[in-house]
Amino acid sequence: MQLLGSTTSPFVRRLRLYFVQLKVTDFEFVNLDIFANSDDRQLLTDNNPAQKVPALIDNDQCIYDSRVIFRYLSQKYQQPSLTWSQENLLTLIDAANDSLISLFLLKRSGLDTSEDRLFFNLQHERVEKIFSVLAQAVNDGEFKQWHYPAICLYCLLDWVAFRQLYDFNSLIDLAEFHQTNTNNAEVKKTDPR
Ligand SMILES: N[C@@H](CCC(=O)N[C@@H](CS)C(=O)NCC(=O)O)C(=O)O
Predict the structure, then answer these.
(1) Closest Cα partner for 152 from 43, 62, 67, 26?
(2) By residue range, what is the domain housing residue 34?
(3) pLDDT recorded at residue 108
(4) Does 67 sit in the ligand 1 pocket, CB within 6 Å?
(5) Best of 31, 52, 98 to mutate for ligand 1, by most ligand atoms within 8 A of CB?
(6) Is 5 in the pocket of ligand 1 (CB under 6 A)?
(7) To the nearest 10°, the Cα dihedral for 95, 115, 135, 143?
(8) Ligand 1 pocket, 48 CB below 6 A?
(9) Which of residues 50, 76, 102 is at a domain's end?
(10) Final residue before a domain boundary, out of 76, 108, 127
């Protein structure tokens, strides 16, 4: 298997950590620069017309989108399904991640995302709301175990901290969750910094 991705993408990092959890080592992580390197971009496009990382190549099968890749891997390695509540938490994590990636790419495109504009405001409002719900979920014990949703939450928070996109330190539960899991050896190995 080959995982096409980048070291900085939170959507890719979650799968690298999921592979560790599955104890699957017979895969190659292909680190691409999809914005600046035209060969890397072509390789991604050839395998995933949506032109986003991650993509997973398993023999003749190519799978796009981290959520679908997760489902593919959990079926392949006969893992239990997520509960509906965990699926919802994953949807919230993905929605916040998508909004923050949009804001990040807008900033890199030279736009001031702190301006009072409908699109920017919608993303900020969504992130604010989701982070408070996720903080409550941590407080309720939903992320006590290092399961896939917990891996995804960690990757979101650590990417947000790395890119300085949102200060979640006032949300004590999220800050503590982030701090505690930063000491995990496998997490350290995938640190994009
Ligand atoms: N829903 C996708 C989102 C993946 C995604 O947004 N990846 C970003 C990198 S973190 C990307 O490749 N962006 C390229 C672009 O937007 O052109 C997933 O879960 O895999």
Answers:
(1) 67
(2) 2-76
(3) 96
(4) yes
(5) 52
(6) no
(7) 40
(8) no
(9) 76
(10) 76
Q: Which amino acid is at 89?
A: L
Question: Measured on CA atoms in the order 151, 163, 34, 114, is the torsion positive or negative?
Answer: positive
pTM > 0.90: yes or no: yes
What per-residue confidence (pLDDT) applies to 20? Answer: 97
Based on the domain organization, do 148 and 184 belong to the same domain?
yes
Q: Ligand 1: does its nearest atom lie under 6 Å from the Cβ of 66? A: yes
Tell me: do 95 and 136 sit in the same domain: yes
Q: How far is the CA of 51 from the centre of ligand 1 (A)?
A: 8
Number of structural domains (the chain) is 2
Mean pLDDT by 10 residues, the chain (193 residues): 98 98 96 97 97 98 98 98 98 98 98 98 98 98 98 98 97 98 94 95
Q: Residues 75, 81, 86, 87: what is their CA dihedral angle, to the nearest 10 degrees?
A: 60
- 54 Cβ inside 6 Å of ligand 1: yes
